[in-house]
Design goal:
InterPro entries: HD_domain, YfbR/HDDC2. The protein is mainly alpha-helical. Helices cover about 50% and strands about 0% of the residues.
Length: about 260
Amino acid sequence: MANGEPEAKRAKTGPGTMDALSFISDICGTLKRLKRTGWVMRKVPLPESDSDHMHRCAMCAMLLTQPADPRDDYTTPGMEKFHPDKVDKMRLLRMAVSHDLCEALAGDITPYCNPTLVASKHEKEREAMQAIRKVVGDPLGEELYELWAEYEDLKTVEAIYCKDIDKFEMVVQAFEYEKEHLRPLKDVPGNKAPLSDSVCAEKDLPTVCDEPLRRFFISTNKAIVTPLFRRLDQELRARREALLKERGWGVTDPERQQPRA
């Protein structure tokens, strides 16, 4: 955490003990205040917090409790394992609502942060989860750590679903910020609407009012694996393209969903 060591990290807990108040107030409270880095970089007014993000991720996970949608193809080789009937829905829900818990201590590090910080991201997050485990106490602390490690390894169906949900929720939020804040192209002074596929340096990023949030769609255009969330992602991108067109903006091919290799 940037502004000093939280009380939770200083809590005196022994093996098997639980400092529940520090967990709820210091750690979970930090997540309610921690604004997501990507939105801060683009100067989004009143950007969402980590808690906001994880709450909707949990709502996305609950979609798996519905019967499989006939529009989603689970018969393609490799996709059978993602059928809702084969998913541990409670484990997925618990993973979705806790997958960014480490950021309460490690911070929200994106691929566009300082390269040194990015290089140490996994280790910082692992240390954060170890610290949180000590505060929470086992068995809950052990479960939270294992859920985080499983999510990072991306080897189970539930972890892959959770990663898809994490990416999908981000592009949903990007679309909503564009819908709320992006001005029509004609109202942006001096904007000639260059459709660049490149990713700007952090210092060059325009505000969400003056340029679409292209980076978020480009970086996720091949990311989503599971049939349900690939379909929802495609539907979302179609809505976004119609919105941008209505406001005079264009969409580049790399912002559209691309086939996975």
